[in-house]
Amino acid sequence: MNDENTAQKQEGIIARLTDKGFGFITREGEEKDLFFHSNELVGVAYNDLNEGDKLSFEVAEGPKGLNAVNVSLATEE
Predict the structure, then answer these.
(1) 3-class SS letters over the chain
(2) pLDDT tens for each residue of 53-66
(3) d(CA 56, CA 36)
(4) Which residue among 20, 26, 31, 66 is the one 20 to 30 A from 5 at the CA level?
(5) CA atoms of 63 and 28, how far apart (whole Å)
(6) How, if at all, do strands 65-73 and 34-37 pair?
(7) If you average pLDDT over every residue of the chain, what do you get?
(8) Residues near 52 by Cβ (< 8 Å), separated by ≥ 6?
């Protein structure tokens, strides 16, 4: 595992949302999409998200591999 990817804010685009409260984020330069669960959302409700929205998040090791934590909508600068 690459420790450089953990505990620092990253950004990505929502690739897919499910009706079960989780989705997947596409990160630039990464082959695999990153899993996120609605429990990790900060300041936004799962039902307010849309595929294509830009998110800000941290990457952490979960029971099934890497996943996004502390997920929020990315702010436009």
Answers:
(1) CCHHHECCCEEEEEEEECCCCEEEEECCCCCCCEEEEHHHECCCCHHHCCCCCEEEEEEEEECCEEEEEEEEECCCC
(2) 999 999 999 999 99
(3) 11
(4) 20
(5) 24
(6) parallel
(7) 91
(8) 13, 14
Delimit the domains of the chain by residue range: 3-73
Domain 3-73 of CATH type 2.40.50.140 = yes
Distance set, CA 55 to CA 1, 19, 35, 47, 63 (Å): 22, 19, 12, 14, 22
Tokens for 22, please give them: 């989780």
Residue 56 contacts residue 19 (beta carbons within 8 Å) = no
